[in-house]
Amino acid sequence: MKKRIAVLAAITLAIEVLTAETLPNGQDAPLLKMTNDEDGNKTAVLAQSFAVETKYGNLTAPATSKVVFYENGNVKSMQLEEAQEIETEAGKFTVNTRAEFYENGNIKLTFLEGTQQLETKAGTFKITATPSSGAALAKDKPLTFYENGTVKSAYLYGSSAPGERTATAKTLDGEMEIRTRNFITFYESGNLESAVPADGSTAEFLTKLKANAKFNSGSLLTFYESGKPKSFTPSSSLKHQLGFSTKARSEVVISEDGKIISCIPDRASTLKLDKQYWHLSPSMPFKNFEDNFPEEMTIDMTDNHFLFGSEQAGIYFDLEEGTPIMQGKTGKRPESDESARSVPYGVITLKFFSTKTLKSAVSRNPFVIKVGANGISTTNVEFNENFSLKKILLSPYAEAPMETTTVQISTAENPDVKVARKKYTSCILQKIYFTNGRIGCAIGSYSQVLQGNSKYYRPLSCIILFENGKIKDVVAKGAESLNVASELIFDDSGNPVAYTSKDNLGNERTFEIKK
Q: By residue range, what is the domain housing residue 373?
């Protein structure tokens, strides 16, 4: 019986091989099957091991393995039956396990057999795809290439033996010791992009920052393509050129001319800007433009007031009639607010345009935007570059609500429900968008009262369109469609044409607004 089964299997296999197609690269091969995907790629399943033609010669794939081809016939990916030597633009490498290619035929990714040499502008390195113990292949440590053939990333070989824990890299600051058992990456030009400095090492540029600092253990050092340092993590704090200190063991980004442009402030850091001192919130990002004006900063306003749009503020603007004034105060965290105990309470994050006008303000505590005599309580506001309002997220705990935070919507026909009339109660606005300084549209929610044979309330969300400050149209949506995270999408004329929404899995979708 077993013999009969074996004979039948052999006959079936032979039939499958005889009916197989020719490979997309023109080779005749013993195939089990060929499939196509929607991108035009073809996948061939080999009946037996086969030498597949590539730009790097014939590479043997094992039986029953899949070889994927691009639409132009070049190999996209394949498994390798055994270790084979290939010659690339970056040198000769003995590779195994798997290889991936770009559409032009150049190699994209592969794994090395053992330890090999890599020649680069930054020096010669020992690289590997296996752990230092020589155990099973580490599949997350490939050798990768750019499409032009230069090496993109490689894993440095290292062991606990003396001399194997570090390697030497050439930089504009001279030779630098870097840690092995870590990735090293390169730009397409071949220049060094990133590496992990050796424990306790330092560099000339740290001295230029007037710091007696060393690289923090295990931190990443990145470079601009010019070869100048870009980001690093020092073991101790640095002195920012604006006068405050950075937080030790946190990432610092510097410009190509050596100025700090991004960091985390240390505790009790104070920034003097124009006429006022700002208390920077610790552990929150601080970014600045290369002229030292802040791009993003989080200030601690506990028991303090702030005001933008007036010369009373430390940062002030040339105002036109109707320009909003942002004002507010933050208090101490209520003892009853258990959910907020791990969240900074009296802070506000400010972002600025390069023209030094306010771009956005975000706070956990409500603050007030004043336009004329009206005040809008908000926790998130965005401005245009001329300091006119762009968008406001309304605070659920409005302290000084503007008239438009609650709007009345008149009775309207309901084509979806066979009842006499439909009535909308007051609509509570959640997010307001402005056009030319005036309210243009909003996202809101309301309760719908259906009248007829029965009465019941149904919560709905809606998009409200305004014209000259008055309601022009209401686009009703189901309660699951719109929420505070939803955003409106506008055409070139500033009219809303679609909105975004997230499902229960967090996937974002876009829906057209049908008026």
A: 301-334+341-401
Residue 89 domain flag: no
Query: Tell me, what's the pLDDT at 236?
Result: 93
Q: Which residue has the higher pLDDT, 206 or 473?
A: 206
Rounded mean pLDDT of 27-32? 94
Q: How many CB atoms lie within 10 A of CB 241?
A: 14
Question: What distance in Å separates the CA atoms of residue 399 and residue 205, rounded to the nearest whole number?
Answer: 51
| 3-class secondary-structure state, position 237 | coil
Nearest to 404 by CA among 380, 385, 377: 377
Cβ contacts of 342 within 8 Å, gap of 6 or more: none
The pair of structure tokens assigned to 454 is: 């029965």
305 and 396 fall within a common domain: yes
CA distance 86 to 18: 32
Q: Of 298, 392, 282, nearest to 347 (Cα)? A: 298
Range scoring the smallest mean pLDDT among 50-54, 83-87, 154-158, 474-478: 474-478
Residues paired with residue 101 on neighbouring β-strands, in sequence order: 107
Asked, for residue 419, whether it belongs to a domain, the answer is yes
Summarised one tens digit per residue, pLDDT across range 126-141 is 999 875 444 444 557 8
Rounded to two decimals, the pTM is 0.80
Beta-strand (E) ranges in 37-106? 42-46, 50-54, 57-61, 66-69, 75-79, 84-88, 91-101
Task: Kindly state whether residues 348 and 395 are assigned to the same domain.
Answer: yes
Give yes or no: residues 367 and 454 share one domain: no
Q: State both tokens at 420.
A: 């006499």
Asked if 497 and 490 count as a contact pair (C-beta separation under 8 A), the reply is yes
Say if residues 424 and 409 touch (Cβ distance below 8 Å). yes
Residue 461: the pLDDT is 82
What integer pLDDT is reported at residue 54 of this predicted model? 97
Q: What is the pLDDT of residue 309?
A: 54
Rounded to whole angstroms, the Cα distance separating 61 from 308 reads 67
Question: In a 10 Å sphere around its CB, with 0-12 CB exposed, 13-18 middle and 19+ buried, how is residue 342 labelled?
Answer: exposed
Q: Which residues contact 324 (CB under 8 A, 6 or more apart)?
A: 309, 369, 370, 371, 383, 387, 388, 389
pLDDT over threshold 90, residue 374: no
Gyration radius from the chain CA atoms: 32
Q: How many domains does the chain have?
A: 2
The DSSP call for residue 338 is G
Cross-strand pairs, 382: 360, 391
In terms of Cα–Cα distance, which of 7, 86, 71, 72 is closest to 39?
71
Question: 235, 69, 225, 262: which is closest to 150 by C-alpha?
Answer: 225
